[in-house]
Design goal:
The protein is an alpha+beta fold. It has one domain: 2-Layer Sandwich (Nonspecific Lipid-transfer Protein, Chain A), CATH 3.30.1050. It has 5 helices and 5 strands; from the N terminus they run αββββααβαα. Strands 3-2-1-4-5 form a 5-stranded mixed β-sheet. A hairpin with a 2-residue loop joins strand 2 and strand 3 (49-53). The two termini are 14 Å apart.
Length: 118
Amino acid sequence: MDQKLEQIILKTPEYFLPDKSAGVSLIAQLNLRDDNTWDYWTLKIENQQCEVKHEKADLPQFELTISVSDLKDIITGKLNATHAYMRGKLDLRGNIRLALKSMGLFNIPDDIWEKIQL
């Protein structure tokens, strides 16, 4: 997996907005495809805290499936997430309402790709 992308995923909790997450409890899974290999990430929000683990979730409330290259394009602004979904490049399964709500719980900088130094 791309090291820069892995660092961005691991830094997700740093951009979490706990004040906006009162009453929110969720477990989400990110399924990343790179050629014929898969990587799985779990995002858990509970008690106004956020954690990310490099593992499959037991019972995710929603799952996002996307290729590594398409996720990089979304992060760098080359691809809009809504357009990726509409074109079938991003698959969302499960509680769509909760997935949409979770988007407002983070303040990820637009230039995060440039900020990550390896």
